[in-house]
Amino acid sequence: MTVEDIARRIDGLDLWSALSPYHWAIKPRGTALPYFCVIMKGDGAPVKARLLMLEGWQTFHDFIRVQLDGNYGFCSSPAEFPHYELIVASNGEPAKLFRYDTGYVPVEAAEAQRTFCEKMLWEVFGVMMRVESDRTLPLRFATEKAMFARVEGADGNWRDEPMAIPDVRPHVERIAFDKADLKQVKDLPFTSGESIEVDFRILPGVVTREDRPRLCYVLAVVDGTTGNVLVWDRLSVARESGLRGLWESMPSRFLRHLIRLGHVPGEVKVVSGRVFRMLRPICMDVSFRLSLHNSLPRLEAAIKS
User: Fold this and answer.
1) In this structure, what CATH number is given to the domain that contains residue 295?
2) In what order do the strands lie in the sheet with 289-292?
């Protein structure tokens, strides 16, 4: 059966709400990493629901922790986690299967990927059918510190198995600055009455022009009084350093922009706890006030324009 056929059957069960709190694993034969099923309900127009199949334990752990704390780690959107995603439309159109990779624009799954996912989606459908009569199925192995999993054996048959949950690896961030840049910033004039607003995020609607387009991120700095854009630094994920490298290098880029502006403002306002965490080490050497705000309308207006 095709992806679209299986998606129609899954949607026909109408269990999106009932299963959205639960997760389970699928591990096809021959794959090094398990895939973790996550259901995210849509807003009803045009997306009814999304079925994510997250790739590997580290991805799943990071995803769950971001759901609990939106500022955890480096990923700020589900689009940044490596996974397959089945998108079910609310208007009756056929479902679509996409491949997501960190830092890249999602693409519709290629034929080989569709074939691989059809096998997993059929198991997802089987699990969801069983949940109709047994709502405790996804929690069957919870007391064993294990996740319910459907695992394909060497004989090609699928079985229910407990998948032991490994310990979460601690999240580590390494923020470093060029000593010459830091010294130059410390020697800049200090304008105590000035404030700037800073954010670093995915820039919606902008991608690179490549065979496989990458997402664009922007380090934006605006004047806290006028809203004038002072810095508009666009960049994308490098293949070597990934999203981690992008975030860990952001404070150094901010320092270099301060050098270009020629002075240090009295206050730096941010709207993201992640940006606050990344810029905070600078405050050990540069005496501006760093403050976290629920909203910064001037900054938002500049980014949306």
Assistant:
1) 3.30.420.230
2) 229-235, 215-223, 190-207, 264-270, 289-292
